[in-house]
Amino acid sequence: MEAFRLFACVLFSAMVGWAVHNADMATRENLDEHDRRPRYNNLMLNALPLPATIIVLLLAALLFVHQVDVLPFSLANIVGIFFQMTLYYIVLLLLLPLLRKKLSASACATLWMAPNFLYLAFYVFMEQTAPRWVIFIPPTVFRICLIVWLAGVAAILLWKITAHLLYRRELLKDAVPVTDPEILALWQSELKYANLKKAKYPIYRSPAAKTPLSIGLFKRSICVILPQRSYTIDELSLILRHELIHISRRDGSNKFFLLICTALCWFSPFSWLAMHRSADDMELSCDELALLDSNEQQRKKYASLLLETAGDGRGFSTCLSASAQALRYRMRCVLHPGKVSSGAFAMALAVFLLLSSFGSVAFAFESYSGQTVLFPEGQRSEYRVDNVRDTQGNYFTIQDEEALWDYLTSMTYTCVRGHYTFEETNTEPQIHYYSDSSRHSFSVSFTEKAVKVTPNTGNRHVAGPYISTQAPDMEKIHALLLPTDAPDPFPPELLLHFDERSTPSDTRASQWLSYVEPQEELPADEVWGGPEPICRIQAPEGSSVRLEFITSPRSYTVVICDGDGLRIEELDSSALTDNVLPLHPATATYTIYADFDKLPRAYYPEGSIAHMVYQFTVQAPPA
Known about the structure:
Blueprint: H1 2-28, H2 49-63, H3 70-102, H4 105-111, E1 133-136, H5 139-173, E2 176-177, H6 181-193, E3 203-206, E4 213-215, E5 223-227, H7 233-248, H8 251-264, H9 269-290, H10 296-308, E6 317-319, H11 327-335, H12 344-357, E7 361-364, E8 367-369, H13 370-374, E9 383-389, E10 395-398, H14 401-409, E11 412-415, E12 430-435, E13 441-446, E14 451-457, E15 460-461, E16 466-468, H15 474-480, E17 481-484, E18 494-498, E19 507-508, E20 510-517, E21 536-538, E22 544-549, E23 555-562, E24 567-572, E25 580-582, E26 588-596, E27 609-619
Parallel strand pairs: 1-7, 3-5, 21-27
Antiparallel strand pairs: 2-3, 4-5, 4-6, 8-11, 9-12, 10-17, 11-16, 12-13, 13-14, 14-15, 14-16, 18-19, 18-22, 20-27, 22-25, 23-24, 23-26, 26-27
Helix pairs in contact: 1-12, 2-3, 3-9, 4-9, 5-8, 6-7, 7-9, 8-9, 10-11
């Protein structure tokens, strides 16, 4: 499972890197009329999957607040997303000066969007086996932090979304559509160059606009707004191309995604700094793409335009010059562009690290004593050892059960929730316990770093698992366990060995457990239904079969019936030599009633006897 998860991470990362490379090539190639690829598509993914995933987790937490599993699972994953994004943005901020020198501005803008791929980590095949580290947050502290955090998230989202809607209303209140044929023709020309021939984005002039901008989250609500001032045709061409690049790459939605990230991590100053730096890189990337193949004179004209249009970029809008603080750097990049990489490898590496490391740190909010975890439904005396074995199939016996109980109950355990399979990958012994009265069972497994307790009812996972807050004393545990032979399988199988003239060999008879004496000790759901003669063999005349019981029975009886179900013969085990049963010359069904006294003592008291029934049908050879 772990190898497949890493393979999936590599595959997704390679796909993202290839998409970034293709998007970069599309901006530099001459697209023909049959090519449907948008020219400007460096961010290549809608920015809403991760916010949608977070919203679903929050709704699950609110709707199922009383569910034992759903609420901690949702909150643990949300905290995990916050932790992952915070760590990623800290690293990206530290590396940003170097990245801006080596990578294109479009690549830098794309890197800010990489955490959006974390939604892929919630697919089943992306589950980690187990966390590498567990951070315990005391319940009282967590509840206070959760209330404060949720209030902050709600306040920031409400503030920013309201500000966006008010700003949009302010811009469009007195706005009028642009009807100048020359401007509209220029706009259509830019749409065609961007390979968006069927797109319809209206253009307005607004007295409230200080700088050219585009605004809108969704395709139908996006529009371009120009201030009430005149521009030359060359200036308008650069302005419209700049805004069309923003629209093509869905930068309005991307800014909304970054707002979600900032709201989630609102108490981290790195999140706010990342939001501002990412907005700068979005504008830098648009400058870069708008000036592809431009000469020095055009670049000077564009730089002059930046100086003249420094303005306000509130809400989820994208404008030609939103920040006067970034103008110096933008001017230098416009006038003196360097040779930079497309950033395909950097983006692929970022996505791989994000996906492969997600869940390495788990967050636990519940802590319990060993007594509470190990015996939730009964007393210690009610539990017995089912078996002790490791993942290599080796079995052990416990020298001092009381000493092991005392050691396990002395530990403190935290309940780990998250996207984990918790498959056993260690080779240390695993102890399985079972209670006859409560039907509760659990397993205890050991690693070098923790003791893991997994409660179960039958074969169905219930809650947990619980992981110890301290590393186990493996020397003590190994001293309490001794290697032993594997127990006899139960229920025991019956293998059928026909003579050399017949096939197949090593055939298993159909079987079912009839009952166990004393019968009142056998739970109702452990009585096996039957019979169903699924084993049908064709054998030559005069052949025989040797009965091989995996576990030797106390005694058994063979009843032979013909094809109509009429009894032909009954044989006792004492009448057979070496368990070799002669076969009837005609088609017959053989039913074997066997009694066993070697039963698993974890489930059945001393002295119990199991009554098994086996059946197989042998068809007469063809005439």
